[in-house]
Structures are given as structure tokens and as C-alpha cells.
Amino acid sequence: MAMPMRRTLVALHRATCRRLTNAEVSLDVRHPGPLFLPVRTKKRYFIPPAVGMKAKMEGFTEAKARAAGIVGKQENIERPINISCTAGVFDPYIPPEGDARLSTLSKEGLKQRAEQIRQSATSQLAIRKIKEHDSLFKTRDFAERAQEIFVEAHNALTQFNKEKLHSLVTERCYPEMTRGNRYKTIRWSFIESLEPPRVVHARCTDMVTKGNVYGQVTVRMHSRQSLAIYDRFGRLMLGSEEQPKDVLEYLVIERHLVNPYSRWRLHGKIVPSWAPAKDPIIKTVMIPGPKLRPGEEFDALNHEVPKPAAVQWYK
């Protein structure tokens, strides 16, 4: 009698649960979220690490990873190098003192010319080696081409054309030309060539490995140019656009001879020790004005520029 009664109660309970479930589905009844969330009641205190424990833990972690067979990223502290150009001018050309001022018919001019012919033996060997890699290389045509590279590079510099400038100058010459030109306006123009450019020096050398040959050719260029540099306020800092000057320059043109896709690019300049000093740069300086009260106006005619106080320097 107890067993049938028990079965009846279980069946009734199941039917009731089924009806409640159907009602919740039909009415879209959802149980609300719990009012209280379980919170960790255990207190945690910060314990500072011991001295030198961090380095030990890093080494222990690395050793544990190696034991597990995990290969970590290799950290190379080596400094990357660029092999598309050399780091400087090797065996630079030494310009004779008084060049472009002495006549070749004078006694000193004839001595300089004889010394250049005597030193041209090494250059001839280097030119022969350059022609082995560049069959179109000729000293007469190359001097004019070097002057064109010089003019195009400086025009790209005044226009801030970085892509074109990278194709005309080497990675060593690029920062030297662009350093300090931010917020400045450059006006440069090539007016005329006073003397035809000519090749005066040529060298070849290996770098990193034997057979990785680089060629450097020094071109003498005597021309007339005009240069004016303005600061960010539009004030003249150096030079003048109306007064051109005669400039004697020794350009170093370089090429990676082993690379068939390389080209001749401007690598640097040789400044002789006897060259005159450059003109000083005119800097813009702010002169402090008088402190005005509210309602006062500045009178420029009656204002006197304060002079700096004399300072005694001790050596």
C-alpha cells in the first residue's frame, strides 16, 4: 500500500515541476541574480621580495623553461651595420694649398701639378679595378655626372624630398646633410661652373669580407653658388640670395661595386685644413621688454634696451 502511494506522489511532483517549467518558458520568467557574491575572506599581506631574488628567479625561470624544452627568443646585443656604404672616406685626398688661386704656369703651380701626376699611379690602379665592375665608367663623363648628382641632391634637400635624397646620397652622408635643418628654410642655387669638374683621386677597398669591393672617387668642383638659410621666424641666419660666392669643393662619390643594382651616390666632402673659416650664424635673440601694468601702453621711442651687467670671469 505504501509503494503505490509513493509512486503517485513522485508522479504528481514531476507533473507539477513540468507545469512550472512550461509556465516560465511561456511567460519568459528568469531567476534574478544572486544578491550576494562570494568574497574571499582570507586577508593577504604584501611581502617585499628579498634583495637579489629577482635575478635568481629570472635565472631559475629560464633554466626551468630550458629543462621543459621551451626555446626562448634569442636576444642579440650586437649593433647592426649597413654594408651598402662605408663608414667614412678611406685614404682621403689631400688638396694642395693654394688650389684655385695659383696659376699652372707659375713655378708653384707646376710643382703641384707634378706632385699630382706622381701620386696618380694608385688612382690609375683603382680606376682600372672600378672599370672591371662598371664597364661604362669614364673619368671625363664621370666628373660631369658627379656634378649633376651634387646639384640634384641639394635641390632635393631644399625641397625636403627624402625619397629622392636617399637615392642620391649614402646612408653616412644623409644625416650630415639633414642634421639641424628642422624648422628652417633653405634657399640654394647653382649658378655656374667656373672650371670644368675633374677626377683627382680614386680608391678601392674591401669591407667585412675580401671581395666586397667599394669604390670612392674624389671630384674637384669649382663653381659659383648662392645659399641663404632662414630660421623658423623667417629671419636670415646665414648667407644671402643676392650675393653668390665662388666655392671650391672636393666631393667624394661612392658605389658598392659588387652590387649590380647599386649606383654612384654622394658620400661626403673633403675640407682642407687651409680652407677659410665659415661665416658666423646670426641667431635670433629675444630682448626682454618692460613690465606693464594693466591699462598701460608700450612706448617704443622712450624705451631703453637694458645692457647686460659686467661679469668678472675667474680662470
TrEMBL record:
Principal location: mitochondrion
Keywords, sorted A to Z: Mitochondrion, Ribonucleoprotein, Ribosomal protein, Transit peptide
SMART domains assigned to the protein according to its UniProt record, in alphabetical order: Tim44
Domain annotation Tim44-like: ranges: 123-271
GO cellular component, one term: ribonucleoprotein complex
Keyword Transmembrane helix annotated: no
Pfam family, one: Tim44
Subcellular location: Mitochondrion
Family: Belongs to the mitochondrion-specific ribosomal protein mL45 family.
Chain's role: Component of the mitochondrial large ribosomal subunit (mt-LSU). Within the mitochondrial ribosomes, required to direct the nascent polypeptide toward the tunnel exit and position the exit at a distance from the membrane surface.
Matching PANTHER family: 39S RIBOSOMAL PROTEIN L45, MITOCHONDRIAL, LARGE RIBOSOMAL SUBUNIT PROTEIN ML45
Protein name: Large ribosomal subunit protein mL45
